[in-house]
Fold these 4 entries.
Entry 1:
Amino acid sequence: MKREIIQIGHPALKAKNKPVENICSKEIKQLIQDLKDILQENELIGIAAPQIAENYQIFVTEARNTSFRTLDKEDIFRVYINPRITWASYRFTTIYEGCGSVLQGTLFGPVIRPCEIVIQAENEKGRRFQLKCDGILSRVIQHEYDHLHGIEFLEKVSNYKQLMTDTYYVQNIKNSKEQVSNSKITIIEHKYL
């Protein structure tokens, strides 16, 4: 069955998301595969289960180069099940964000978030891990984590006058000094717990 990314206004984006109890179930394994396929097919760097109308506490990330992001350092595909952000830095940055569930990813706006975070979660094998990171990886984790709490990035845009189409974003913001600098990944510290 081909899954679709649901769009803002769909009730599943605001519904309560259940913790995953059986990571090894066929249903959860298929959900993770579907999220990976959709992420890669749509040039996203992150997607959460509620975005395909599955209300589970799961999201995936793959910070890599796409038509909307140019990175000098990329990260591997990661699965976050029952995640919890346990620490966030007091230093903040602004990065323009978009979302596959907001006009199919064609709208971008500035969002201020902590530079660095620490997140704990389980991976697709049920192994608990901790990840400390910064840059676009920290950003996408916070964005997807928000989805698990019913929050769209539009609710966090710092200046609505700076909302723009994907075309304008690519032409004017994507390679700007501030966007590139704030997106730069310098920390990826992963360990099993």
Entry 2:
Amino acid sequence: MARSALLNVMVTAVLKAGKGLARDFGEVQNLQVSLKGPGDFVSQADMRAEKTLHAELARARPGYGFLMEEGGAIAGEDEQHRWLIDPLDGTTNFLHGIPQFCISVALERQGQLMAAVVYNPANDELYTAERGGGAFLNDRRLRVAGRKRLSDCIVGCGIPHLGRPGHGKFLMELRHVMNETVGVRRLGSVALDLAYVAAGRLDGFWEDGMSPWDMAAGALLIREAGGFVTDRKGGDDMFGRKEIVAGNEDIHRALLAQLRKADG
């Protein structure tokens, strides 16, 4: 698969950060036996990955702004371009030695998502997309699954955990969705879940309470794989409303309908 210069820059940065995360993941697995646990180590791994991504991308595209999970917003001289970065999506999985985590990087130009990379260093799966250029897993072109009915589908979701609001609301949503589907999955990494929708592994996905860096790369992957990604109202204000619903045209519509039922 031929990549553009822009996508090559992103892939180079992500693979470099991924090598460090893969090494740190091996250390975390060893740390599981300790009483104290690897929490501090994981936060350091997160910061190291973000530092690598920032350095590589800033050198390749000086002047672009950044919005990062750890480092926050950094304005650039070029106000039209902004990197959206999650250096370790699936931190809890990483912490527990579960190989379901990723690096997520997207480029935004004047509010439009232009390019995306999602990479899982644990299994060397690299998802890439450019606006108008399709979505790929390594060198394989991606298409969303073609199922038409929720009753044939596996749907991914996020579950509010300890310290997060909305437990009761989520349980109502889960009741409506699981009654209509083959199964509901919580895999623990939003960006990977969305990449799985693009790859047809999951038929749909929904979650609330997210940040732009959680959704950006995965949203472009799905759109470039022929899928639909919106907020719960069916609009494009995912970042503002901090929510996402995804799937092919039919499953996306059906998920929206079930979530509206849950809202009463």
Entry 3:
Amino acid sequence: MYDFIGDIHGHADELEALLLKMDYSKKNGIYQHPERKVFFVGDFIDRGPKIKETLELVKHMVDAGHAKAVMGNHEYNAICFATPDKENGDYLRKRYYKNIKQHLATINQLTAKEYDTYIEWFKSLPLFYEAEDFRVVHATWDYDAIAYLDQRLENQRLSNHLLPESADRDTRLFLDIETILKGKEMKLPDGLSFHDKDGNIRHHTRIKWWLEAHETNLRDASMVSIPDLPAISIPSQTLGKAYKKEDKPVFFGHYWLKGEPGLYRNNICCLDFSVAKGGCLVSYRWNGEQQLNHNAFVWV
């Protein structure tokens, strides 16, 4: 059985407290449980005060077989930030001020050798994971994107030779990786915008990708509460295929939710409750159930 854990963003103290609360203990320097394993949904780095400690803890658990993990968008961004763009003489993720600022805490907290080591480890992480009775992805389980990526990737992993294509905005590979790691968005009506968690002005809002376009509207589907957001329809191509209500549970992070942890639906479980912005670090303790239960959340 698995304990799914949301975005950590360098908050190792909270991670250790959460593991201890769930009766994990250290043996030979590695957290483990006699009957359970952890499944991390990505975003280990950036923002927090103990990124190195977080990476050490997570990697040791994964390497020892006491945990699994998928890649988050911050790990993917780090790979591209560190990878030279041989065609244009830059890096696959441009070193603009905004990108450097987002990644600076990680750069400052790791030595050059440690940084290179973890970049290589990030490359070993799958972009999504499917078992017989559950699914894991960092942001969005989009059926079409997953099917395409399953054909292109090697065991759900991004090989070095695909990296340049994955960073090219004109390719389907880029668009589908963007979808599953960063979510679906819709442009706001003219004149509307909001400031995100980092103070950036946004003209697009992330939307609840598991909904049917005909059963919702922009106001209800927005992941962010935006004043004066109208209840206009959402184009079906924006949402794509809704996640089936009868399908297996899917666990993900990414969305900076607030308040007490809860479920959107009995097979839709977001685990990111903004630990890096004063929220909590959250786990869902899964025991094989196909109908998820609000009472299975644990947090610190």
Entry 4:
Amino acid sequence: MTSRGLAALSRRGFLALASGACFAAETGGRGRIFPSFLKRFPDPATEFPILRLTDPNHTSFLAPAYARSFARHGNFLVYASDMSGKFEAFRLDAKTGQSRQITASENFDPRNFTLFGEDRYLAYFDGPRLIAANIAALRTREIYRIPDDSEPGFGLTVAEDAQFAALIEKRGSAHRLRLIHLADGSAAKLAEADEELRDPVPRPRRASVLYRRAGSVWLANYDARQNYRLKLADGEIGPATWSADGRAVLYLNYPADPRNLHAIREFTPDTNEDRLVAETSQFVAFSANADGSVFVGASGSKASPYVLLLVRAVRRELTLAEHHASDPAMVSPIFSADSQRIFFVTDRDGKPAIYAMSVAKFVEETASAN
């Protein structure tokens, strides 16, 4: 979402809220418009301005940080919310602050959804069905159906070329990593284990998928001929994802000694090199901007429940805001495509809601589209 877009949001959002406009364009609620719930306020700790984008009387979530919630040109974001009475997907317009209901599902899964295809489509689960929705036309197509004896696990992503989706299926304790060809719905099994698999992330510019297996991180090729555990640093492994160019895995490392700081580390699969990027103020969630020069993280410290920027070159942090989330992992902060805004989730004001902040003073603008 661009700075211009959110500026327009702040000017026009209250007008949309005052109008109370809410109508159904189609049966089942698809196309229904909800008014803006935008609220601007200074953060109590830093006095930096914050925008609350959704209503804290209802639960709202962004897609996982490794998936996509934000349009590359910044004109909208998609999110999951129960404000219609049950969880559905919504498109929040950057100019008006209004939200349009995208899905009318029987059992929408708020853990598993992502934008793809030049921001024209949303992939999501409705029960066992993997669906692609045309966001503008509100038409849907079933791509794949999970077998009757199984259900969706945690994780759904679409590769940057929009040809394949990676997802997790589970049956009791057994989990499978599937690769789905979006054009015809054909499925290939890349990995299977009698323990939790989750968080699949296709590798940019490569034919492989990063995923979590129990407490470790694995890499599986599209052809299923290679599937191996990455030799990461000792200690517990937190969130992990690819660098923008696909050359390295960025991950949080929690040292075995609790007196040591949580750290962002970088592992290069092609050379098996693992190195420290920076120690953090006990990050439990993080993401990088488009060129990997700056990170935004959520601290799990009870004494310092903050959202922070970390500049890679100098390994220094800047406190942006308090999050005060009941579970710091839910904060899951992420940059807009142009690196000028950050977004995060917290239940500080009630139920989980989505918040935005400008970081244009601290972070250089990056390309907003591929």
